[in-house]
Amino acid sequence: MTSYGNDPHQPGYGQPSGGPPAYGQPAGGPPAYGQPAGYAPQYGGGPPPSRPGGVTAAAVLGFIVGGLATLFAIILFVGGSAFSGVNDGGSGLAGALAGVIIIFAVVVLVVAVIMIWGSVLAISGRSRVLLIVGASLLTAFGLISLLGSMQNAGTDTGGIISQVIGLAISIVIIVLLSLSPASQYFAAERARRGH
Q1: CA angle 149, 154, 158 (to 5 degrees)
Q2: Is the distance from CB of 108 to CB of 73 less than 8 angstroms?
Q3: In this structure, what DSSP letter does residue 124 have?
C-alpha cells in the first residue's frame, strides 16, 4: 500500500509531470484570457510603444508639405494646359513650355505622394524611410532652387524667404526622424510586429 504522494506513477506536489502534452493540447498551461484553446499567443504581443512627439511632428509636417505640393501640382497642370492652347504663330515655343511645366507638375506630384505616403507610414509606426527620402528630395530641390534664386538679381525677398522656410521644414523632418527616440520607436514597432 502506498501513501498519498508516494505513488511512483503520480508526480508529487510541485513536481513536474515530465511528459509532453497530449496530442492537440496546448503546451505551457491554459491559454491566455480571451485566447481560444489550442492557439499560441500572438507573436511579439504587448502594448504598442508610445510614439515620440518628434515622429508625430515630422509626419504632420509631411502631410502639410504633401498637401501643399499637391495643390501646387494641380496649379502647374492647369498652367501647362493653358500654355498648350496658346497660338504662338507656329514656333512651337508654347507647346514646349507647356511640356516642361507638365513634366515639372508630375515631379511635384510624385514628391507629394511620397511625402503623404511616408507620413502615413511614419505615423502608423511602420517605417520612416519613405518620409526621409521625400524630405531629402525636397532638401535637394530646395537647395537647387535657393541657389538659382540667389544667382538671379531680380528675385524678390519673399521668394527667397519662402524657399528658406521650405528648406528648413524638410531638414527638420529629416532630423526629427533621425533622433534616438524615433529610432527606438521604429525598432520597437518592428520587433512588436515580428519583422
Answers
A1: 65
A2: yes
A3: T
- What is residue 158's three-state secondary structure? helix
- The dihedral formed by the CA atoms of 43, 44, 48 and 54, expressed in degrees to the nearest 10: -130
Instruction: Say which amino acid occupies 164.
Output: V
Residues of the chain with pLDDT under 50: 38-42
Q: Please state, in angstroms and as integers, the Cα–Cα distance from residue 149 to each residue in 73, 157, 178, following that order.
A: 20, 10, 29
Cα 163 to the center of its chain, rounded Å: 24
Q: pLDDT tens, 2-44?
A: 555 555 555 555 555 555 555 655 555 555 555 555 444 445 5
Alpha carbons within 13 A on the beta-carbon side of 110: 8
Enter the C-alpha cell of residue 35.
485566447
